[in-house]
Amino acid sequence: MSRNKIKVLKFGGSSQCIEGYRVIKDLVRDTDYKYIIVVSAIKGITNKLIDYTRISDSKIKNDIIDINNKLIINCDIDIKPNYSILNTDKTDKLQNKIDIISSGEYFTSSILNSYLVKKGIKSEFVQASLVLKSDTNNKELYNTGPFTVNTKVIEEFFTHSNVIVIPGFSALTPDENICLLGRGGSDTTGSIIAASVNAEIYQIWTDVNGIYSCDPRIIKEAQLVEKIGYSVAQELASMGAKVLHPYCILPCAKKNIPIEIKNTFNIKGKSTYINGIKSVDTIHGITKQDNISVFKITSMNMWNNYGFVFDIFSHFKNYNVDVNIISTSQFNITTTTNDPNISKLHLLKIELEKIYNVELITDLSIVNIVGQDIKKNPLISKIFDKMKIYDTYLTSYASNDMTLSFVVNNSDTQDIIECLHKIIFSSYSFEPKEHWWHKIVDLYYHNDDFVGPQYLYNRDIIGERITQLQSVTNINQFYYAMKANYNIEIIKFIISRGFGIECVNLGELYYLKRCLGKLDFPILFTPNFCSIDDYQDEILNNDNIKLIIDNIDIIVKYPDEFSEMSIGLRLDLNCGKGHCDKVITQGKQSKFGISIDKLIEYRDLFTAYNINIEGLHTHMGSSVHNYKNWVKIANRILDIVSDFDSIEWINLGGGLGIDKQIDFESLNEELGNISSDKEIKLFMEPGRFIVGESGIIIGRVTQIKDKMSTRFIGTNIGMNDLIRPALYNAVHPLYFYSPYQKDDEQTVTVVGPICESGDVLVKNLKVKHTITENDIVIVTNTGAYGYSMRSNYNLKEVPVEGFI
Fold first, then answer.
1. Residue 225 near residue 424, CB atoms below 8 Å
2. At the fourth CATH level, which superfamily is domain 284-424?
3. CA-to-CA distance for 764 and 532, rounded, in angstroms?
4. What is the per-residue pLDDT across 373-410, written as a single tens digit (0 to 9) for each?
5. For 207-250, what is the HEC assignment?
6. Is 780 helix (H, G, I), strand (E, B) or coil?
7. Which CATH topology does 459-686 take?
8. What's phi and psi for 564, nearest 5 deg?
9. pLDDT per residue over 624-681, tens digit each?
10. Rounded Cα–Cα distance for residues 124 and 705 (Å)
């Protein structure tokens, strides 16, 4: 048979519907080809069939029949599938189970074939047992083959038909029984057949466009991988990508038959094309595997001792516990398993502890970075820098140099994947929607005198964020960190809503006094690495100001200066968080805070000089969204409170992220459940969360330049106006206001006019319309650390501010 004349199409469970069948009908009308259609069961049916073999429940049986009959009605065909296989009462026997579980594909194959015949297609239903053969008999539920294809049967049917419909997932054993190829076996059925008939292409039709850089349900910015090699696609599939089964790739790879993943419900959309290409040091995707447990097995007797590895894993075999990643050292073996039976794992642990020291850690996940030549990828150093802030129980390079795996806490998985995806696949697209600034920007565009840049702030947004925070009633006092934005109108508004102010140096305190006249509201003064003279400044003689010391050494050096004072201490609990290492404010590399051991060490010093420790403060970093982090902080500090009878308040810090929701209701509830022997007030000091989304900076496009496949859009908004992208690698949503019609999507890099290579607002921004000089550009979420960090570097004029 000529390779050019056959296409093998596999249609998955989600495609078993009238919409999917219409797509199939239109595809096979092209008589230049012969078609082999491999069919899955209707989505969910195989699970029901498996349940039915465990519990012969008539309700499950009726559900299976009803779902298939509904498809028959939608197809408007007259067919009665043979449901008699479901009548057996011998579901305890292996072969009966296999026969029942394989029936889902037989039902849909007969339905699809009848539909195609009714639509005038020369189609034949062919039993899988006539086409696909296993070389081994059934010993377990799933047969591992090897499998062969009877191509003569296919040739015979093609003499009088243009289309063959074959059930996937099953084959025939040497003793002429049905066998199963394993979950996802229909993918493998199609691949084996495509290789055997030397097909032109093997298409897998499903409900997504193909393989993505990450699961789009986890990362909405996930990018479609349009071209990928066989080996990397197989690695992605085996490491958790659910689009196709890893076993289905090898048969086609051996014959160099391309595999294409198509979306039944978006037939004109882009797709993933898998062939023999090899891409050097390229990362294609991030996957995750949940429900992971880790065994850490340690013994001094391992060193130079033959046979201990065999001994350890023989215990795993005895308990039927499969392992995934194995890492060894002279005195330790660490291995992962995805076995869900935790009770069994504990029994295995007890058995191993007869000889070894064993730690079992559960509720973990594996985050996998998959590509070609992973070790050579230039992003590896950035990936490891990011992973420093997370607890990692095992790091593994795959021997094929295609996967870098991190075993981490399940609770950290979402944050890790989001951070790594931003590092590896830094492409951005900001969908246009109705914003508060739209009408204002329209006025600016038609004002020829406006050049910009200019900051604008919206009072209503600030009010909404304050209301959200005040719903956390178990926080006794909020303090606004004014370093985020010291616009005096904003500060007045925030104070009027009952918030205090957090200041980090004397300049901020004097600014407040100069603008407001008196400091008659709550203030936190939290300097770090300042002069001893700053602590003695006269402005601090105010009962409304609480002084927080960041470094015990200054008290040790000048104890008399702090004698008889009431102060707070800033702690480092070694649990820093943040989107960038420059915003993480705890840990060994952070300049902030006092370690717990040092706090305890100098407890007697505080007593000797009658220094009253009235409060404890800590701060994680920035862009924190998981409310449990603040609950964790509160609990950890309360553990310390018992050592200091004088503690009256705890400051949980801030760092609240603005780009997704925070569960304030749960935060409030769990803070309310925290108990202590005495009444302790809780403080928080959010800055960016209150004002970040309230601000925009508006400017104009100045120049456009194409250089070596990169299109640069120049603007008059420079790093001196907004330094966060250059300083923190922050990505602010950016929009263009253009009257021109939509154009083909283009990828651009938006830059400013400053003489620095780092003067970039956003790289790899996807835009869908023509951009020309003088168009308005709007950078959003700039209400925090925008104007307050501006400079006149290059002697560029600083932007003006507006408040609405």
1. no
2. VC0802-like (3.30.2130.10)
3. 47
4. 888 888 898 899 889 889 999 999 988 899 999 999 99
5. CCCCCECCCCCCCCCCCECCEEEHHHHHHHHHCCCCCCCHHHHH
6. strand
7. TIM Barrel (3.20.20)
8. 70, 10
9. 888 999 999 999 998 888 778 889 999 999 999 997 889 999 999 999 988 776 789 9
10. 59
**CB-CB neighbours of 570 under 10 Å:** 22
Residue 725: is the preceding peptide bond cis (ω within 30°)?
no
Parse the chain into domains and list their residue ranges.
Answer: 3-197, 284-424, 438-455+692-803, 459-686
The residue among 385, 425, 383 whose CA lies nearest residue 405 is 383
- pTM of structure: 0.67
- Over residues 62-95, the pLDDT tens digits come to 999 999 999 999 999 999 999 998 887 666 789 9
Mean pLDDT over each residue of the chain, to the nearest integer: 91
- pLDDT at site 742: 63
In 449-602 the beta strands, taken as DSSP E runs, fall at: 454-457, 477-481, 500-503, 523-525, 545-549, 566-572, 594-595
* Tokens encoding 241: 């990508």
Give CATH superfamily name and number for 438-455+692-803: Lyase, Ornithine Decarboxylase; Chain A, domain 1 (2.40.37.10)
Which H or E run includes 292? strand 282-298
Which residues lie below 8 Å from residue 187, measured CB to CB, with a gap of 6+?
10, 168, 204, 244, 245, 247, 248
The three-state secondary structure class of 76 is coil
Query: How many whole angstroms separate alpha carbon 697 and alpha carbon 722?
Result: 9
> Half-sphere exposure of residue 590, counting CA atoms within 13 Å on the CB side?
30
